[in-house]
Amino acid sequence: MYIKKITQILRKLEIITYASVRRTSDWWQNVSLGPPDPILGLTEAYNLNKHPKKMNIGVGGYKDDEGKPYVLPCVREAEAIIAGKKMDKDYAPIQGIAEFNEQSAKLAFGGESYVIRNSLNVTVQAVSGTGALRLGGAFLKNFFPGSKIIYLPSLTWLNHVPVFKHSGLDIKTYKYYDPETRTLDFCGLMEDIGNMPENSVILFHPIAHNPTGVDPTREQWVEISHAVKRKRLLVFFDMAYQGFVTGDLDADAASVRLFIDECHHILLAQTYSKVMGLYGERIGAFTVITGSEEEAGRVLSQLKILIRAMYANPPLHGARIATEILKSEKLTKQWTDELKGMAQRIISIRQKLKQGLEREGSTRNWDHVISQRGMFCFTGLNPEQVKKLTEDFHIYLNTNGRISIAAVGSNNVDYLAHAIHQVTK
């Protein structure tokens, strides 16, 4: 009886003490409610919608013609090979799987590139493209001897800004897209490069610019390279779509290889999310091009320290899948054939969308729907028109009018064309 009373008293004291702490702790009361992610928030709203014709064309993920997530057959084969090897699940090295890093560099620069032959590239595994960009931002903040400014195209992937701000870099922009002509503002781009301070960093999308789908021509890339060299700018390439645009891995890497051939010491972020459909595996690579093998060793040592502090070790499974595909001539051929199939389906949907808009009676010029390249179409719709698409037709897309063509199927492209016509006529 006595012990029971003591226990009851102690429990009351515990409750009182806890309540007192709760009342006096105000550590988090100044935490404001953050806004939803502008892209991923679309999926949340889409999932709550019960309309039978609803469409989610905002998130950049490839879907098959029926709107379902697509797993590449070559990925299935690679997974079967990996399962048969019965490999362990031990930690990967800090810099990732060596063979994956080697294959990623060859994919980007070509197997015979002088930077690979002379061990001038430092390539490490990253947590997809976002992680590669974040790692690159940290490396620039800590070690780049020039200004801590990174110049982004005036329209760019929405996450570029918070990633580099979080890295401690200052953000500025350069002219890129002309909304009147829906083409590259090449004169504005070159003018802005000419006005940049020396030893600044400039980011380019080497292929399938996100969100506009507008890329420089080969000749324009040559002029850009020369202008960048005159200003002593460091180029950071964000390459998310190699092979996804034309199905030709070498053709889609042409701008990166041009800068390598012209002796730029670039940074490069790669991701296998889009091109191998490995979205959830979070697999990518980050590369620094250096001036000597000795310099490369020092750069690698510092990247390993940054990685160790961020996430310690990269994940295994996605890197193993990519490695199996890249090192096998048979699987690489199968992969490129599948890439061509995805690229051709996207081109076909672009054509059907333009034709659908014309059948609807639209008098607007929709040539940009088929002239733009890659996964996205920058439609030219304004925020009010986007709002009407969502409210009246249950179609979810970014407020800037960017749509993922890869998420549109032959069964709903006409509905999309009808809806766009209704909000733009």
Tell how many strands the DSSP assignment holds.
Answer: 13
How helix-rich are the residues, as a percent range? 40-55%
CATH topology grouping of the largest domain: Aspartate Aminotransferase, domain 2
Architecture (CATH level 2) name of the largest domain: 3-Layer(aba) Sandwich
**If strands are numbered along the chain, what order do they take across the biggest sheet?**
2-10-9-8-7-3-4
Write down the overall geometry. Answer: globular
Strand content: 5-15%
Describe the protein in words.
It is a single chain. This protein is of the alpha/beta class. It contains 17 helices and 13 strands. The strands form 4 sheets. A 7-stranded mixed beta sheet has the order 2-10-9-8-7-3-4, sandwiched between helices. Strands 1-12 form a two-stranded parallel ribbon. α8 (186-195) runs parallel beside α9, α9 (218-230) runs parallel beside α11 (254-261) and α13 (317-327) packs across α14.
Question: In terms of topology, how is this protein built?
Answer:
Layout: H1 2-24, H2 40-48, E1 55-56, H3 73-85, H4 98-109, H5 114-117, E2 121-127, H6 128-143, E3 149-153, H7 160-166, E4 170-174, E5 177-178, E6 183-184, H8 186-195, E7 201-204, H9 218-230, E8 234-239, H10 249-252, H11 254-261, E9 267-271, E10 283-289, H12 293-310, H13 317-327, H14 329-360, H15 367-371, E11 376-378, H16 383-393, E12 395-396, E13 402-404, H17 413-424
Parallel strand pairs: 1-12, 3-4, 3-7, 7-8, 8-9
Antiparallel strand pairs: 2-10, 5-6, 9-10, 11-13
Helix pairs in contact: 3-13, 3-14, 4-13, 6-7, 8-9, 9-11, 13-14, 14-17, 16-17
